[in-house]
Structure prediction request, 358 residues.
Amino acid sequence: MGAFGLLGNAFVQILTPASLLLMVAGVAVGIVFGSIPGLSASMAVALFLPLTFSMTPSMGMNTLVAVYIGGISGGLISAILLNMPGTASSIATCFDGHPMAKNGEAMKALGLGIVFSALGSIFSFIILTFCAPMLADVALKFTPVENFGICFFALTMVAILSSGNMVRGILAGMLGLIFALVGMAPIDGTPRFTFGTSNLMAGFDTLPTLIGIFAISDILITAESMGSGKVETIQVKKVKGFGFSWQEFLYHLPNFFRSSLIGTGIGILPGIGGSTSGMLAYVTAKNMSKKRDQFGKGCPDGIVATESANNATIGGAMIPLLVLGIPGDGVTAMMLGGFLIHGLSAGPLLFVKNADVV
Prediction:
């Protein structure tokens, strides 16, 4: 049976009422988990994993992928409305999403985030479907030198994002490095800055740290304004549809394609994740834009870049999982457990024995 025959057979299995209902339920549950700061896509997939025991392999994996997509996408809701990233992938969405909400454009910001999140996922899954083996070969050629280069480049983004107040940017970058140094050293396992407390041996988890950084400052600002009796009322502007015109959609397409490619590329490399791809896409969009002075003040381009990239990371992270049996991030590590539960062995043989599931 040819490749298109396998695809047709797979779609016949997936496009059934029961499977579609599970997809909708999975996305809905994922969005709830993603939109609540403190919960995550990994937690949603972990909780849904036992529910797939009685399902067929294709239906079970279909449901888990739906939860994964919903969990990553849901983070934009709290990022835009509360300035608190629901997931680590939505950090950069706060930069322009919340200023847009404060300007009364919350509905437009949510519309942009939802549409380009969906398109970013679709883009990466098309690449996953047709180019997975070739891209996996590229990922195998990445050595620690290349990974170091990506990490170093990510750190240089501090300078780009801090233009205008370099001292504050350097202090923020140093604070991030201090948080990252707590816990066991990755090479020799030496405890660092644990102060004799076993609770710090695993270091600080990214999501609770981010919630503390973003949420506490917003809570203090809100408490101060309520104490002084100067509570700010924001008039939400009414919108039609998703809040943007067809011309605006066409304008954002180059940014979308560029950011989705960045997200897919970062997703292929194991262990880097959506937070890095979102930041890289945001910085790239800012450098390529003619209105870079508007970034950080409510520029729609920033939302398009981050949401396209972090959702495109999903398809990218699935490539090393399916082709090599190596999880691309924490969520795909959970999904590897799902494969084992259903008697599937992730890796090259999966394409031979269970091509329809792939």
About this structure: The chain is about 70% helix and 0% strand. The first helix runs from residue 3 to 14. Strands lie at 183-184, 191-192. The radius of gyration is 21 Å.
